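I am still getting used to backbone structure tokens and would like to learn alongside you. Would you supply a protein for us yourself, any chain you care to pick? Start from the sequence, derive the backbone structure tokens from it, and show both lines together. Go ahead whenever you are ready, and we will take it from there.
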Amino acid sequence: MQASDLIEAMELSAVAYRKVQPDSFGGSLITIDDPKTDIQCYLRKRDGCLSITFRGSNSGKDWKTNLAFGQKTIPYGNSASKIRVHYGFIEAYKSHAVRDVINDIISDDIHQVKITGHSQGAALAVLCAVDLEYHYPDRDFEVILFGAPRVGNRAFQKSYNKRLFKTMRIENGNDIVTKIPFACMGYRHVGMGVHIGKPKILGVISFNDHYPQAYYKNLFKRIELR
């Protein structure tokens, strides 16, 4: 994973909030826009690589999904499993207009899958990554998350990290979203955490640190200082 991969993932996550997607990233573009869940997802196929970008929260429906963290649920019906995840996130991702479409696009010529997103988009990227890796374990997966909330419990964290070790989770300053749902509720972060921007301070939260432009600015500074 190179510095250029992080910058491109951040740019894709930021432009996912736009209605019109720029064509500067190349590849053939497929858009998912599910009116039921209000999930937007952009898929780009290029030279054997599929790039999947989930848009972050941008509507009332999105926040209804976000706030359904009081209830954790079994992801895919295996009652023997100890894995539990955020109810709102998994129900949104499992929508036929989202999950089924993404799975149908994984063709034999796809060898690498890059998944990214900001905020709620990062949470959906986590669930998408673990789902696709289970069904297509022979592909190379790379996951880059920005401002990600916690998605599942410790059992989910352990399973995810074992299967998707190439996951980088970027946290900016004291971004409030990276602190929820609370760890005291049993939620845990996945992937390798990398902190950028202002020092993290216990008990301090910031809404401004969550904006995509704040992530882009401080990510660029971090890379320049290397």
Summary: The CA atoms of residues 3 and 223 lie 7 Å apart. The first strand starts at residue 28 and ends at 34. The chain has one domain: 3-18+26-224. Residues 59-64 have pLDDT under 50 and may be disordered.
